[in-house]
Amino acid sequence: MTELTQSQTWNELKAHTKDLPHMRVLFEQDKLRFDTMSTSACGLFLDYSKNRANQETLSLLFKLAEETKLASKIKAMFDGDVINTTEKRAVLHTALRAKPEQKIILDGINIVEEVQQTQAKMATFVTAITSGSWKGYTGKSITDIVSIGIGGSFLGPKIVSQALRPYWNKDLNCHFVGNVDGTSITEKLKPLDAETTLFIMSSKSFSTQETLTNTLSAKDWFISNGASQADIAQHFVAVTTNVAKATEFGIDADNIFPMWDWVGGRYSLWSAIGLPIALMIGMDNFRELLDGAHEMDKHFANTPLSENMPVIMGLFSLLYGNFHNAQSHVVLTYDHYLRGLPAYFQQLDMESNGKSVTLDGTRVDFSTGPVIWGGEGTNGQHAYHQLLHQGTALIPADFIMPLKSHNPLGEHHIQLASNCFGQTQALMQGRSYEEALVELEGCDLSIDEKSTIAKHKEMQGNKPSNTILMDKLTPGTLGSLIALYEHRTFVQGAIWDINSFDQWGVELGKSLGNDVLTRLGAEKDASELDCSSNGLINMFRQQSI
Ligand SMILES: O=P(O)(O)OC[C@H]1O[C@H](O)[C@H](O)[C@@H](O)[C@@H]1O
């Protein structure tokens, strides 16, 4: 048993959540619920009134946060303590968006200075590319960026660039290659011209198989399209902590942008890993993105727990996972530009909190991170929302929508908003059997038929959701939004006392994949493996060519 589940507050929460009335009743009892259960910070508004909670629930949750020393754990992260204990690393993505005058000392070095130097290098590079002064090997300016990376080195740049499309430099295009599946890079390169294409190889470790393989194929494509080995310097840059390996790989030393081991892959878009974003939206907008995140950092570090947006959201997620048996959490973005955000939050949260032991190695006796999934509204309403409304699983939802659209076309935005708010309302209130019967009045059906259909139309409601609004999707509000989710993830990991910053499961997959590779290549026999793996390997060997 862990200390957490034995604590009095944990057990009080268990008992309390069982007795809580339906949210419909809570709304009837408290007409000011929207005012008291909503908050604003850093350009974001959060309505958390449609949650299974009253003031007592909130008090118990904040008490749990206090007892598990959340405030001092937050401070430890910002101070650069080695909170990633298994990899013996500080966790300082917040330093990437610190103000230039701040000082964050790690091992005797002010890392803010190093961050600023790298940002200055990025700024020079962005100007060179966007002004056209950086020329390709035939003297033409760069028109296409191909970003090669995977995991955090793929999702961050891709999804943030996609989200900030209205801010794109009109003379540039950006393409992202992640998967090692040759189809991905082949299709991406097909329409491109080697003379005007720049490759950014993004890999924190510079040892990820997919990224190395894709970069080698990109080099082959480049050379086979008429360029020479010497031309590589004008067309290939890298972002990595492993400068030596990148140089050895053939990347010109001047074209290497450094990063640091205190930046986790899934928290790296704020570093030079964000170079594709900076190229597409310009360095001023990139800085606005960092500033938005920095504002959220300040809010998270300095606001009392009961008014702290990431804390509130983290506690609600924990409430559903640990006390209502919710196994998943859905993120629904009512903005086409934000359609990739669920996938980004999926890596952020599932790679961080998909853990089974506490920091001291004790096996947990509670659920940790849920499955994060989602998509864009209103599309999902005509598909998986059915399960949200009437399925047997409880799936808490986050609805995210800017109040103003970048494309204010006719009635589109007002309809989008009506759908967003209508969904949260339907999830909360549901439809009672009696209401369904009333709706069937006047239908040409027998009483028995009406009763049966009413049972099918009945919806229990009491399905929780948060609604996050912002005035407009800008680099600043996006920065705040992403940092909000980073810290929301941290809050849960801190209360569970797990390490949210390692990823041993992913590492195992990588090393077994490498072992299988040697067996697929017939260098090594596979007969000592389990019969399924052996069978699959043999089938591939015999039939893949
Ligand atoms: O940037 P790299 O070192 O190539 O790593 C790419 C990715 O590798 C692994 O899958 C990690 O779990 C991710 O967090 C990381 O972003």
From TrEMBL:
- Where is this protein localized, as stated in its record? Cytoplasm
**Pfam families linked:** PGI
Transmembrane annotation, as ranges? none
Record InterPro entries? G6P_Isomerase (IPR001672), G6P_Isomerase_C (IPR023096), Phosphoglucose_isomerase_CS (IPR018189), SIS_dom_sf (IPR046348), SIS_PGI_1 (IPR035476), SIS_PGI_2 (IPR035482)
This entry's Enzyme Commission designation comes to 5.3.1.9
Gene Ontology terms: cellular component: cytosol
List the PROSITE patterns hit by this protein, alphabetically: P_GLUCOSE_ISOMERASE_1 (PS00765), P_GLUCOSE_ISOMERASE_2 (PS00174), P_GLUCOSE_ISOMERASE_3 (PS51463)
Name where it mostly resides.
cytoplasm
One GO MF term on file is: carbohydrate derivative binding
Q: Which keywords belong to this entry?
A: Cytoplasm, Gluconeogenesis, Glycolysis, Isomerase
- Catalytic residue positions: 351 (proton donor), 382, 510
Catalysed reaction(s) here are:
alpha-D-glucose 6-phosphate = beta-D-fructose 6-phosphate
Its GO biological process annotations read: gluconeogenesis; glucose 6-phosphate metabolic process; glycolytic process
Q: According to its UniProt record, in which pathway does this protein act?
A: Carbohydrate degradation; glycolysis; D-glyceraldehyde 3-phosphate and glycerone phosphate from D-glucose: step 2/4; Carbohydrate biosynthesis; gluconeogenesis
Reading the lineage from the top rank, the first entry is: Bacteria
Family of this protein:
Belongs to the GPI family.
* Known function: Catalyzes the reversible isomerization of glucose-6-phosphate to fructose-6-phosphate.
Record HAMAP family: G6P_isomerase
What NCBIfam families would the database entry show?
PRK00179.1
User: What's the protein name?
Assistant: Glucose-6-phosphate isomerase
Name of the coding gene = pgi
